[in-house]
Design brief:
357 residues; alpha/beta; six-stranded mixed beta sheet; globular
Length: 357
């Protein structure tokens, strides 16, 4: 008897980047650089990234001394699974009054219901003016947050974070935070192994939590002053052990108070928050790449008990450890086998530099 079963047709997730006049070339390129890398076990690109304009194909002016030629018009937005709006310095009424131009409104009308939407920096003004953020949390560049809040009082603006994931709508701060946001979406779609491989190839930190502060008063510590780098390296090598704040401070010969202040200045989060972030990342890696039981993963990641790990993963990711493993384990194992990926996170004794820019 003939086997009528067929493998489902493969279709990459389409990301459409909306290029507006006055766009920043660097931020326009972020989605292409991040989403243009991930491949499945057969070497097929997991994302199809295209750029479109709100007008017919043609030139779009940047904020630099050159224009770019965009080959797709606004109807391309109807084909998107995800739409990303990078920053622009020429939003006109959108920026000044919080209202869409007729041309922009007509273009956005092509977007299908259920499409994932994301913005980088001042691209958030477009989503806000379209009414897509009313009553929802959002962020933008810290220097623009107060003005954005005044213009859109119905949006819950958080000026202190790198990005906000509100399910089908995601917003980010400027420049580097756009990279963090795109990596976060890859991680959400395909797991840490795929996202961390993209980060390694792009030579950026694999993970900066969305809640990390976007503006650090002293991002580059005074070279004459002690830093907390050694303490972080020490902690990363023993995440599976109980780690006390006083023990981390002792690695730098600082008082707990001085160490806590210096740590927050350098990383944007408290030592406790940082440890939790690292343990969540370690747990994700172990769930994806090993056969260890949930109880063993909890111990190896430093949570102690499966219940504690479950609570932290639920809080950070919205899923249980078992659900996370079921979602990403098989895909990432096969991808790693084909591409020869190295373990995405540092194991005990290794140190992954963390930046706070």
């Amino acid at each position: 008897m003939k086997n009528l079963s067929r493998e489902p047709e493969f279709r990459p997730h389409r990301v459409v980047v909306l290029a507006l006049d006055g766009l920043l070339p660097f931020e326009l390129g972020i989605p292409h650089r991040i989403f243009g890398r991930p491949r499945d076990a057969r070497g097929r690109l997991l994302y199809d990234v295209v750029t479109c304009s709100i007008r017919p194909p043609g030139p779009v002016q940047t904020d630099a001394d050159f224009a770019i030629h965009v080959e797709h018009g606004p109807e391309t937005l109807a084909t998107a699974d995800t739409v990303i709006v990078p920053a622009s310095y020429e939003l006109g009424p959108v920026f000044e009054q919080g209202v869409l131009t007729g041309e922009l409104a007509a273009a956005l009308a092509h977007i299908r219901p259920g499409t994932r939407l994301a913005s980088i920096c001042t691209g958030v003004y477009v989503l806000a003016a379209a009414g897509l953020l009313d009553g929802r949390p959002a962020t933008t560049h810290w220097a623009d947050a107060d003005r954005f809040q005044r213009l859109f009082p119905h949006i819950r603006v958080d000026p202190d974070v790198l990005f906000i994931d509100d399910g089908d709508v995601l917003t980010s701060a400027g420049v580097a935070a756009g990279i963090d946001l795109c990596l976060h979406m890859v991680r959400r779609d395909h797991g840490t192994a795929v996202a961390n491989d993209v980060a390694r190839r792009t030579v950026v930190p694999p993970h900066r939590d969305g809640g990390q502060a976007q503006y650090i008063h002293r991002p580059v510590p005074d070279p004459q002053q002690a830093t907390t780098t050694s303490a972080r390296a020490w902690a990363l090598g023993r995440l599976h052990e109980p780690i006390q704040l006083r023990d981390m401070a002792a690695q730098e010969s600082m008082s707990v108070r001085t160490f806590t202040r210096r740590f927050r200045e350098e990383t944007g989060v408290s030592p406790g928050q940082w440890l939790t972030q690292q343990r969540v990342e370690r747990a994700r890696h172990l769930l994806e790449s090993t056969d260890r039981s949930v109880d063993q993963v909890a111990r190896d990641a430093g949570f102690g008990t499966a219940q504690s790990m479950r609570q932290h993963l639920q809080s950070a990711l919205g899923v249980t450890p078992t659900a996370y493993r079921r979602t990403f384990r098989a895909e990432n194992e096969s991808t790693a086998a084909v591409e020869g990926l190295a373990p995405p996170l540092p194991e005990q004794g290794e140190h992954r530099p963390l930046t706070a820019g």
